[in-house]
Amino acid sequence: MDVVERLIAHSEKDLSRAAEYRFVDTPEALRAHDYSEMNQVLFGFLDKLEARYTAAQA
Fold first, then answer.
1. pLDDT by position in tens, the chain (length 58)
2. What is the full DSSP assignment across the chain?
3. Predicted pLDDT at 18
4. How far apart are CA 49 and CA 43, in angstroms?
5. Confidence at residue 1, expressed as pLDDT on a 0 to 100 scale
6. Total tally of structural domains belonging to the chain
7. What is the model's pTM?
């Protein structure tokens, strides 16, 4: 199961009230979103964090 689908399944109650909240997307919007750019930025951040941690341990 995809991570987004797991998030949707776990948050079913909250997502049913998405229209009441400004920053809560509907399940359809979550499924339609392209997460590739956000994932690339996150992976870059984690790589830098790991490099700094490794350098500090040396």
1. 699 999 999 999 989 998 899 999 999 999 999 999 999 999 999 999 999 999 999 8
2. --HHHHHHHHTHHHHTTGGGSTT---HHHHHH---HHHHHHHHHHHHHHHHHHHHHH-
3. 87
4. 10
5. 62
6. 1
7. 0.68
Q: Tell me the residue range of the domain where 18 lies.
A: 3-57
The residue behind tokens 């930025």 is 41
CB 24 within 8 A of CB 5: no
Number of alpha helices (DSSP H) and beta strands (DSSP E) in the chain: 4, 0
Quickly count: other Cβ atoms within 10 Å of residue 15's Cβ. 20
DSSP letter string, 39-52:
HHHHHHHHHHHHHH
